[in-house]
Amino acid sequence: MKTSHGEEADNAIATCIDACNECSRVCLQHVEHCLTLGGAHAEAGHISMLLACATVCRTAAELMSLNSGWHPTLCDVCAQVCDECSDECEELGDMEDCVSACQDCAEACREMVDEHADNEEEDEEEENELVGNERLN
Predict the structure, then answer these.
(1) What's the pTM value of the predicted model, to 2 decimals?
(2) FRET label pair with 131: which of 26, 71, 96, 101, CA 20 to 30 Å apart?
(3) Is 123 exposed, middle or buried (0-12, 13-18, 19+ CB in 10 A)?
């Protein structure tokens, strides 16, 4: 059964909300993990990165839940922050689940943004067709 673009967009948003919430949860849990490990894991810059990632993920999920027009913009930023956090956590080591959650979230955000852009283009084409048809009548 083929789904409509509206259903695909809804699925992309639902998947993205779940990925953002999971990434936020995992990043927050790793703050304690990193402080316990000490050393480079506990440096202010790394803790700040984890907190920033958790915050942007949580905010992106909230905007999607509200169906805010800002969610595609924030999800694009979220993907970038998750990429940076993932790279940093992978470099430090002993943070595989954080790396995975960040990568999953970045991918889901990009897919949601792409789906949103496709729907915007489709809506614009339909609007142009309607305007063209009205001129013919």
Answers:
(1) 0.83
(2) 71
(3) exposed
Give me the CATH code for the 5-136 domain, please: 1.20.1270.360
| 10 HSE (CA, 13 A, CB side) | 5
Give the torsion through C-alpha atoms of 102, 106, 112, 113, to 10 deg: 150
Extract long-range pairs of 97-104: CB within 8 Å, 24+ residues apart.
97/26, 98/26, 98/27, 98/30, 98/50, 101/19, 101/22, 101/23, 101/25, 101/26, 101/27, 102/23, 102/26, 102/27, 102/53, 104/19, 104/22, 104/23
Look up residue 70 and give its DSSP letter. Answer: T
Domain definitions of the chain by residue range: 5-136
| Closest to 60 in 3D by CA, of 33, 82, 41, 87 | 82
pLDDT score of 11: 86
Residue 29's identity, in one-letter code, is Q
Which amino acid type is present at position 67?
Answer: N
